[in-house]
Specification:
single chain; about 500 residues; alpha/beta; TIM Barrel; Double Stranded RNA Binding Domain; 3 domains; eight-stranded parallel β-barrel; 16 strands; binds 3-methyl-2-oxobutanoic acid; binds zinc ion
Length: about 500
């Protein structure tokens, strides 16, 4: 029987640190439910001291999730730890994850502390966290560039102080697989009390090695890996959950451990995270990319038809492709609609919200005969209003004709006041965006505009992603509709509603 590999997901914390990937409380709860359904062991729900919104999000996840352990991040500071302890009060099982930097460059330039002071702070933080929970994780930030002797000293001290998990982060993604594996091996060998704690790794993907480094650590005895859905995360991201889980599952000849993950839930989680954050999954992405199981060349197709193992090392249905795919149509009733949403982990707070969603579903089913799970996910994102929504689209009319300048007539409600304007543009989307900006006067900069079809066919809904920047803050907005100009306007307004709410938010690692 193989040992258990613990999956610690940090999509809601490190994943959210990607510029433009911020999520609302409701969105975080939806993702947390999907992680729980997948049997993720630990969900890092956020950094509670960052802002009131972050605190409330961690609290909401802690109060909702019952099967997975819920974790909150805290720097090695009293207030951070108290805030995390407070946010996690309602959790069935909680963990506080506290960290302090240990590399020479971080200690000198960022913390401006002597190594002994760093150890003192780490020990104090772990002891304080233990007042709230008996499950405390400690990370020596930038361990991948820290001195091995110093790591041994600090880790031995935090185990004595009560840390139950030691997470070794390659914060800047600098390590190579054999080197990182060796580091884990050495730490386990050299720290006298290392058997009293669980070793974990947290690898960033700056050199594209996050998954390889994590797997090398697992082969060297790390029983926990930290990862995110679609590899979302700071800069080039974190190790992708789906890749780690499937590598270990597929290569059981190499690993003496396996995860508890229900892999058939992977694709749904990937789509949910991508839809909510607007971080589109590249077609050739392993496991969850549109081409991951597609066979283009005739030779491959022939081989796969004769015997799938010729070119496939995993079964597409094992990660959620082509399974449980229920199609709804215009004759589907409210009950079928509600049941399918529940199966997708989507629940509405009130009957009123369900009714609005059902009405939108009927409108969509009228335009598009078959409504797929992906359509339902997009429809729900569209239905649940943002907290603090200030701008609402009432109507949009565009005129676009060969040889003529496109014109858009937009009606919005802004702070309860109806406003209408007509503007010309280089295309219908440009005209619509200009009109919206003229009304709202947000002074934001459009950084990204992209359109993808949610499902195949020309009657598919277009899903639009918009990324806006203002004063260094980046937000993304999404909108879906069978009419891509309307989808574009919805996405733009969705992003505006996020950027118009000022946030004062601390970043854990700055
Ligand atoms: O990358 C990192 O070092 C982190 C820590 C907070 C664990 O995210
Ligand atoms: Zn990180």
């Amino acid at each position: 029987m193989s040992d258990k590999l613990i999956i610690f997901d940090t999509t809601l914390r490190d994943g959210e640190q990607s510029p433009g990937a911020s999520m609302t409380k409701d969105e975080k709860v939806r993702i947390a439910k999907s992680l729980e359904r997948m049997h993720v062991d630990i969900i890092e729900a956020g950094f509670p001291i960052a802002s009131v919104g972050d605190f409330e999000s961690v609290q909401a996840v802690a109060n909702t999730v019952t099967e997975s352990r819920v974790c909150g991040l805290a720097r090695a500071l009293d207030n951070d730890i108290d805030r995390a302890g407070e946010a996690l009060k309602g959790a069935n099982a909680s963990r506080i994850h506290t960290f302090i930097a240990t590399s020479p460059i971080h200690m000198k330039m960022k913390l401006r502390m002597e190594p002994d002071q760093v150890i003192e702070n780490a020990v104090k933080a772990v002891k304080r966290a233990r007042r709230y929970t008996d499950d405390v994780e400690f990370s020596p930030e930038d361990a991948g560039r820290s001195e091995s002797d110093f790591l041994c000293r600090i880790l031995e001290a935090v185990i004595d102080a009560g840390a139950t998990t030691l997470n070794i982060p390659d914060t800047v993604g600098y390590n190579l697989p054999h080197q990182f594996g060796q580091l884990i091996y050495d730490l386990r060998e050299r720290i006298p009390n290392s058997d009293k704690a669980i070793f974990s790794v947290h690898c960033h993907n700056d050199l594209g090695l996050a998954v390889a480094n994590s797997l090398s650590a697992v082969l060297n005895g790390a029983p926990q890996v930290e990862c995110t859905i679609n590899g979302l995360g700071e800069r080039a991201g974190n190790a992708a959950l789906e890749e780690l889980v499937m590598a270990v599952r597929t290569r059981q000849d190499m690993f003496s451990c396996d995860t508890n993950i229900d892999t058939t839930q992977i694709l749904a989680a990937s789509r949910l995270v991508s839809g909510i954050t607007g971080f589109v999954v590249q077609p050739n992405k392993a496991i969850v990319g549109a081409n991951a199981f597609a066979h283009e060349s005739g030779i491959h197709q022939d081989g796969v038809l004769k015997s799938r193992e010729t070119y496939e090392i995993m079964r597409a249905e094992d990660v959620g492709w082509n399974t449980n795919r229920m199609v709804l149509g215009k004759h589907s009733g409210r009950n079928a609609f509600r049941t399918r949403l529940e199966e997708l982990g989507i629940e509405f707070e009130s009957e009123k919200d369900l009714n609005i969603a059902f009405r939108r579903f009927k409108e969509l089913a009228d335009k598009k005969h078959e409504v797929f799970d992906e359509d339902l996910q997009a429809l729900v994102s569209d239905t649940i209003p943002l907290e603090n929504e200030r701008v609402r689209l009432i109507s949009l009319k565009v005129c676009s004709e060969t040889g003529e300048i496109p014109v858009a007539l937009v009606t919005l409600i802004v702070d309860d006041e109806e406003k209408q304007i007509e503007m010309a543009g280089s295309g219908p989307v440009d005209a619509a965006f200009r009109a919206i900006e003229d009304i709202v006067q947000s002074n934001t900069e459009l950084q990204l505009y992209s359109v993808n079809n949610i499902t195949s066919g020309t009657d598919s809904q277009g899903e639009v992603n918009v990324r806006l920047e203002k004063g260094g803050r980046i937000v993304s907005g999404q909108g879906a509709d069978t009419d891509i100009v309307i989808a574009s306007a919805k996405a733009y307004i969705n992003a505006l509603n996020k950027i118009l709410v000022p946030v004062d938010r601390a970043h854990p690692q700055v």
